[in-house]
């Protein structure tokens, strides 16, 4: 059986950026990518009308690595004959729909290397003489057919899995309880849902609240905090998303890394854009003006239990201000509760005995002993070691260069 030089697991923005970098470095030979979605899509169920990017378009697939690349956002605009019109918008923040279209445009250049509709189910070692020489990557197609491919190197970029609070664990599978990652598609199937609870206090929760408000729903926004906090995107704070800051974070001892993550958590987690917060505040203010309290902001409330019956979803809510508990019924509940990024642990579990506790080196390569020849890289699974930018688009172009160089040069772990 043929042994591929590289198999990329997942073909979202990170592995797309890697494919571009390898192509421009002349190193793309014998690399393929396996993607479980039927076609390229970037958070398709959160492409809300009026939702814009939160980072500059210059942090695209290639610009920070190679500004003259044919795969920059500016060249995409040029190819679509929209460059001058975009300039006239006077913004660094395109709509999320347009950026998704840009990503799809870039991905179409690599269609021959991508196998869509295949979900990787396991990665196993292939041993010769007591040494792991390469890897067996197993996947299942949309038609149920099982596939096996061999690889000398893999890059795992599988994104996050929805974080479901324990109070909702028993309702997994109930279509009326959905995570924000499936918002548009799920709500399209819940056409009669008029009374909705949104759980969370971050950007997704805020965007979904405004979208439901525009659709005439009655919405309870449920948060454990006292307020929706603004994301800190001031210039000095934004330096933590610079590529060279990754070096600084990685060089710190583990305790200091954890402290840095905690200090700057308000740049990315449980925060929303200030203009969006102002829109939500205005909605609640106008309710007071007209005397029609269609929505509620249930701050300092926590869901302690959730039950489902034919009539809807019943939440037991604890008011943490006064300690009282009450029940509220909804047609649908949306969990804007973030993501967990541990999927690579289960996917790579058959390799665990050769890996050093899933620790990575500076070039995102999982550290392993001399009896393990393949190189395994993570994209989006290294926040604890590389900083808050690891799960974002900010360092994507630079990281693709670093992984490409490590693949080419055989940089040792450590």
Question: Could you give the topology of this structure?
Answer:
Elements: E1 3-9, H1 13-24, E2 31-35, H2 73-79, H3 83-89, H4 96-108, E3 114-116, E4 118-128, E5 131-141, E6 146-156, E7 161-162, E8 177-179, H5 183-189, E9 195-199, H6 203-214, E10 218-222, E11 229-230, H7 235-238, H8 243-251, H9 254-263, E12 271-272, H10 274-290, E13 296-298, E14 301-309, E15 312-319, E16 325-330, E17 332-335, E18 339-340, H11 343-347, E19 355-360, E20 366-368, E21 375-378, H12 383-386, H13 396-409
Helix pairs in contact: 1-13, 6-10
- By secondary-structure content and strand pairing, the structural class works out as alpha/beta
Mean pLDDT: 95
Shape: globular
Q: Gyration radius, to the nearest Å? A: 23 Å
